[in-house]
């Protein structure tokens, strides 16, 4: 098939492009490099069937042309990372909502299958864990910019499902839970690459909040594998799926594991949310998915657990550090 990936030079997008090419598909990557990086797809340049365009999903005519050529669209382009969300709420809302509008509008003309990348953030302040796809979403106050991202992605979901209901435009919504792995940076607040970099540099490992908040981390390869299977599962159309891992760890515990894995002497320090982000910042105490629905649909079971994820990220970051030392 011919596959368009918006956000194709991003962390998840580049891994997806790689897997699609390996499966014999033709890939068209679109990215404005605002959070993605050309380095993520450097190894794909020149490979048969790979094409990339540096531009934005706001380019209406370009998106229309690229969707017209594609059989399937993975819409991954979005504002990501808590730091970016807090600092640039207007950018976050406009990027997420308007970008999805453009993609769905043009896909609907030819009924091209669209995957909408959503997030576990949409569950908001809900305390009913594990989070199930049909559970109520509990958002914080509009005066807390923290929730702008969650609301914008929830609106993306509503819009996609409205297209499915009203015009039978095929869509599949994926709620990603803390996806991590090689090529992810800590630039916008992603915790695993940030902790690994700090540990390798001997800097303090900075835990925001009190460190008791719990998360479940998913290896990017498991996520990509799920996307490839759902792409060829007709019964998945019109559905919303969690994709993640049910193994939980506290953020303090994550810092301790990374410190041990790197052999670092770094001190683990806690920084109050008010100092790390903004006054009145709110966070989710636990974030863990119910994977029953996606398991029933495609037999999904995450294969890579946290210690191995950490090992792979540490190996990658050490490789970068060694390469930089050689260059200098």
Radius of gyration of CA atoms, rounded to a whole number: 19 Å
Order of SSEs: EHEEHEHHEHEEHEEEHEEHEHEHH
Q: Which consecutive residue ranges, at least 5 long each, have pLDDT under 50?
A: none
Strand arrangement, major sheet: 3-2-1-4-5-6-11
Distance from first to last alpha carbon? 43 Å
Shape call: globular
Approximately how much beta-strand content do the residues carry?
Answer: 15-25%
Structural class: alpha/beta
Q: CATH topology, what is it called?
A: Rossmann fold
Number of domains: 1
The tally of strands reads 14
- Seen as an oligomer or otherwise, the chain set is single chain
Number of helices: 11
Going by CATH, the architecture would be 3-Layer(aba) Sandwich
Mean pLDDT: 93
Per CATH, the superfamily is: NAD(P)-binding Rossmann-like Domain
Fraction of residues in helices?
40-55%
Could you describe the largest sheet, including whether it forms a barrel? 7 strands, parallel
CATH class reads Alpha Beta
Could you characterize what this model shows?
The protein is α/β, with parallel strands linked by helices and 328 residues long. The protein has a single domain, classed as Rossmann fold. It has eleven helices and 14 strands. It has a seven-stranded parallel sheet with strand order 3-2-1-4-5-6-11, sandwiched between helices. A three-stranded mixed sheet has the order 12-9-14. Strands 7-10 form a two-stranded parallel sheet. Helix 6 (191-201) packs across helix 11. The longest helix has 22 residues, at 89-110. The mean pLDDT is 93.
């Amino acid at each position: 098939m011919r596959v368009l990936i918006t956000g194709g030079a991003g962390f998840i997008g580049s891994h997806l492009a790689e897997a699609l090419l390996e499966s014999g598909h033709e890939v068209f990557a679109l990215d404005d490099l605002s959070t993605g990086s050309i380095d993520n797809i450097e190894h794909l340049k020149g490979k048969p069937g790979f094409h990339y365009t540096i531009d934005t999903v706001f380019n209406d005519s370009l998106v229309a042309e690229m969707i017209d050529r594609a059989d399937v669209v993975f819409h991954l382009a979005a504002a990501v990372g808590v730091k970016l969300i807090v600092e640039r709420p207007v950018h976050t809302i406009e990027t997420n909502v308007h970008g999805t509008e453009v993609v769905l509008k043009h896909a609907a003309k030819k009924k091209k299958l669209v995957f909408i990348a959503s997030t576990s953030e949409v569950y908001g302040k809900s305390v009913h864990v594990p989070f199930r796809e049909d559970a109520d979403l509990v958002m914080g106050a509009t005066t807390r910019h923290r929730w702008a991202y969650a609301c914008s992605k929830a609106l993306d979901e509503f819009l996609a499902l409205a297209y499915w209901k009203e015009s039978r435009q095929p869509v599949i919504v994926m709620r990603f839970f803390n996806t991590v792995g090689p090529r992810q940076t800590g630039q916008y607040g992603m915790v695993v690459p940030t902790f690994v970099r700090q540990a390798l540099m001997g800097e303090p490992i900075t835990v925001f909040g009190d460190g008791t908040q719990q998360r479940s981390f998913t290896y990017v390869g498991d996520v990509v594998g799920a996307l490839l299977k759902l792409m060829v599962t007709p019964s998945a159309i019109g559905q919303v799926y969690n994709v993640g891992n049910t193994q939980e760890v506290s953020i303090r515990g994550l810092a301790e594991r990374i410190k041990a894995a790197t052999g670092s002497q770094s001190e683990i320090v806690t920084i109050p949310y008010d100092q790390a982000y903004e006054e009145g910042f709110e966070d989710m105490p636990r974030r863990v998915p119910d994977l029953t629905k996606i398991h029933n649909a495609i037999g999904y079971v995450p294969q890579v657990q946290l210690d191995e994820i950490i090992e792979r990220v540490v190996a990658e970051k050490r490789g970068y550090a060694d390469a930089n030392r050689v260059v200098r």
